[in-house]
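User: Please predict the structure of the protein below. I'd like the answer in C-alpha cell form so I can feed it into my own downstream comparison script.

Assistant: Understood. Taking the following sequence of 199 residues as input:
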Amino acid sequence: MSSRERTLETVKRNQPMATELPEVPLFDPHLPDPWRQFGENLQRMGGTLVESGPDVDLASVIKAIHPDAKIIASATPEIEGTKQLEDVVGAPRSLSDVDVGVVRAAFGVAETGSVFLSDVDLGVRALGYLSQHLVVLLDPAEVVGNLHQAYQRREFAMASYAVLMTGPSATADIEGVLIHGAQGVRTLSVVARPVAIKS
C-alpha cells in the first residue's frame, strides 16, 4: 500500500459521526413591505423601477425607457424583439450589438434589490451581459423579503445556471468614482408586470 493510499484509508476510517444539519431560520419577522423595499434597494444599486399597469402596452413602455433602441432581443414571449434568440444559439457573441435585452425574472429579493435570472429566463446567458441595457419584467407578488427566503425558492434547485442581478454593472476602482456600465449592462430597468393569467 502506497503512502497516498494509507493516508486516504486513515482519513476514511476516522470520519466524524454523521449529524443532521441545523435548522436555519428565515429571519423574516417584522420585514418591511417587500415591494417598497425592493424598489428602494434597486434604486440604491443604480437600477430603475418602472411602475406599469397590466393593460399598458409593453412595447410602448420599452420605447419610453429607451427611445433610441434599434436592436431589441427578447427572452420572453410577452414582447417581440427585432433580433431572435433562436438565431444566436451557439454564437452568443452575436448579441454584442443588442441595444436592449428583455427578460422576465422568476422573482426579486427585497433585501438586496436583486432579480433572479436563470438560464431558462435568459434563453441565452450572454443576453444579461452583452446587451447595452436590460429591461426585466417582474411580478410584484413574486418579491421575497430576504436572501434566506430566496434560497428556499424551487428555481434555485432547478436551474443549471442562475444569477441574482443587482443593478447595472458598476466599478469604483478608479479614484473611488462610481461608474455604471463598466463591464456589463449600462442600465437595469425593472418593469412591474404581473404574469398574465392564461385562459
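That's the full C-alpha cell string. The first strand starts at residue 48 and ends at 51.
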